[in-house]
Every structure is written in structure tokens, then in C-alpha cells.
Design brief:
Blueprint: E1 3-8, H1 13-22, E2 28-34, H2 38-43, E3 50-54, H3 61-65, E4 77-80, H4 95-123, E5 126-132, H5 146-165, E6 172-178, H6 184-189, H7 199-212, E7 221-224
Parallel strand pairs: 1-2, 1-4, 2-3, 4-5, 5-6, 6-7
Bound molecules: NADP nicotinamide-adenine-dinucleotide phosphate (NAP).
Length: 229
């Protein structure tokens, strides 16, 4: 039987690498969500086990998925990988940019979980939320990332409470706090900084964690970084 895996934020960076990796195994049915789907559609044309769905975390989740949900069946994993970063001093960032970070990094993923909830229950899904080391308590911090880091801390805390609340349903939820990965997001936020970790290497780790560790971890916020602290 197919295992259905939903990946949000699939168009580039770590999410794209996740789709590329997992699509090699026909045992998985992938649902790839992103705003920009043209390139994804071209890249995965002809692969019937990869479904590409336009999806914006700033818009109503249920409305956008209403044609997809009836045929989806049990979901075994959801990777909330999409992210949005705003950089600027607290005195310079407008409230609309704080709201945008909260929407894409916290409220949007929560509404996606709510929209998929019955199917996540059916599949006793492992939900993996992708956060950042900047949201991990006690980690080294960088200035100008208050909006991004705080919104990513919100999804981390959500993970702990949701996992406790949902124990009886069999849904598991964990949060991975990533260190630097060489993607467009990092290159835009920190021009000239070269991260050693490739999107493919991180996707490998996230895929492995998602598929194998749902029984071992639940409600955990896990740093994925070799930096100290
Ligand atoms: N790269 C790093 O160093 C690093 C470090 C720590 C944590 N992370 C986290 O890792 C995850 C992946 O990051 P990345 O570096 O691969 O970033 P990226 O290259 O900027 O890709 C971000 C992904 O999120 C999607 N996305 C953005 N806004 C969206 C929206 N409103 N609705 C739906 N999808 C949206 C984008 O797709 P569309 O634009 O097509 O919608 C894209 O596929 C993010 O959550 C990020 O915060 C990254």
C-alpha cells in the first residue's frame, strides 16, 4: 500500500530536495504544496505518484484543498517545511512583516494541520514541523531576525502542546530546528555566507527522521546543527 506524504514548501531549497528524494520511491504517494508550481509540474511530469497542488499559507487552507482532500485517503506524514524570513531591526520592521512571518511560519501550518486533521488521524501521521536554531532556547542568536525566529518558536511550542493533546489519536508531531543550509533563503538573508550543509543533505536527514522516528520521538523540539551552543 502507498504511504501518503504531504510536503509543504516544495518548490525550492530543502522542500524541493525532499520531493526529489522521496519521489524516487514509488511506494510513496507525494502531495507537494507550494505557491509556485510551474517548475515542479515540469520536473515531475509523468510521475503519477507525485501530485502537485498550488497552495499559499497566507490563504484559506480548506478552500485551497477542497478538490484534493476527498481523494487523498489516510496521510502517513506531513512535513511543514515552508518558511518565510523577514530581516530587519525591530524598529524598522513594520507590523505587517511580523504578521506575515506569523502567518507563513505559524498560523498557516496550524491551519494546514486543521484542514488535514481527519486524514492525519486515519494515517496516524508523523507531522514534522521545520523550524530554526534561532528559535531554539539557549542557541546562539543573530540580530534582525525577531519576526522570523519568534514565529518559528511559536510552531515549536505548538508542537509540544499538540503532541500531548493528540496522544490518543496516534498522530505524532515533532519539530526540527535547523542550522544553516545552503538555500535561497540563507543566501538572501546572509549574502556571502556559505553553509556547509546542502539542501539535499538536510532533506536526507528530514526524510529519514520523518519516516523512521515517529515512534521514537513525540512532542520534541530537536536541534539539527553542529554549532555550539
Ligand atoms: N536555509 C536555512 O539555512 C534554514 C535554516 C533554518 C531553518 N530553515 C527552514 O527550512 C525550511 C525550508 O527553507 P529553505 O531554506 O529551503 O527556504 P527557501 O529556499 O526560501 O524555500 C522556502 C519554501 O517555502 C515555500 N513558501 C514560502 N512562502 C510560502 C507560502 N506563503 N505558502 C506556501 N509555501 C510558501 C516556498 O515556495 P513558494 O515560494 O513556491 O510558495 C519554498 O518552497 C523553512 O521553513 C526555513 O525557515 C532554513
Amino acid at each position: 500500500m502507498h504511504k501518503t506524504i504531504v510536503i509543504c514548501g516544495a518548490s525550492r531549497g530543502i522542500g524541493k530536495a525532499l520531493v526529489t528524494l522521496l519521489s524516487k520511491d514509488q511506494a510513496f504517494r507525494l502531495v507537494a504544496l507550494s505557491r509556485n508550481v510551474e517548475a515542479l509540474r515540469r520536473d515531475y511530469e509523468g510521475l503519477t505518484h507525485v501530485e502537485i497542488v498550488p497552495f499559499d499559507l497566507e490563504k484559506d487552507a480548506e478552500e485551497q484543498l477542497k478538490n484534493v482532500l476527498p481523494n487523498l485517503g489516510p496521510i502517513h506524514a506531513l512535513i511543514n517545511n515552508a518558511g518565510h524570513l523577514e530581516k530587519g531591526k525591530v524598529t524598522e520592521l513594520g507590523m505587517e512583516l511580523y504578521q506575515r512571518c506569523m502567518q507563513v511560519n505559524f498560523l498557516g501550518p496550524v491551519s494546514l494541520v486543521k484542514a488535514l486533521y481527519p486524514l492525519l488521524c486515519e494515517g496516524k501521521a508523523h507531522v514534522v514541523n521545520v523550524s530554526t536554531m534561532g528559535a531554539y532556547q539557549g542557541s546562539v542568536k543573530f540580530p534582525e531576525l525577531t519576526a522570523y525566529a519568534a514565529s518559528k518558536a511559536a510552531i515549536a511550542n505548538f508542537t509540544e502542546v499538540f503532541a500531548e493533546e493528540q496522544k490518543a489519536t496516534g498522530i505524532r508531531m515533532n519539530c526540527l530546528c535547523l542550522g544553516a543550509v545552503n538555500t535561497e533563503m540563507l543566501r538572501t538573508a546572509f549574502p556571502g555566507y556559505e553553509a556547509e550543509i546542502t539542501p539535499e543533505a538536510m532533506a536526507n536527514f528530514i526524510a529519514d527522521f520523518t519516516l523512521k522516528s515517529g515512534k521514537l520521538f513525540n512532542g520534541k523540539i530537536i536541534p539539527v546543527s553542529s554549532s555550539t551552543p
